[in-house]
Specification:
By secondary structure, the protein is an all-alpha fold. The protein has one domain. 80% of the residues lie in helices and 0% in strands. Helix 1 packs antiparallel against helix 2.
């Protein structure tokens, strides 16, 4: 049997569990802002639309990843 000192720690998983939702929103906002900047720079609306769609898709993917990671960490990681 292992001691508490020998239990593995997973700092990246802990970081993503604590701050993953904020990182998902930040990544989506950056894509949306990049699309908006592209629309302003080129004068076409398609860049803004693409930025909005990509931002939403990235947010959905990252948010679902964080939720799955939370479930796994709650079930498998020691506290």
């Amino acid at each position: 049997m292992r001691n508490d000192a020998e239990l593995p720690t997973y700092p990246v998983i802990g970081f993503l569990v604590r701050r993953g939702r904020m990182l998902a929103v930040l990544a989506a906002a950056l894509l949306f802002l990049a699309g908006t900047w592209g629309a302003i720079a080129t004068g076409t609306v398609w860049w803004a639309a693409c930025g909005a769609v990509l931002g939403l898709a990235v947010w959905l993917l990252l948010a679902s990843y964080v939720e799955v990671l939370r479930i796994v960490s709650d079930m498998l990681m020691p506290r």
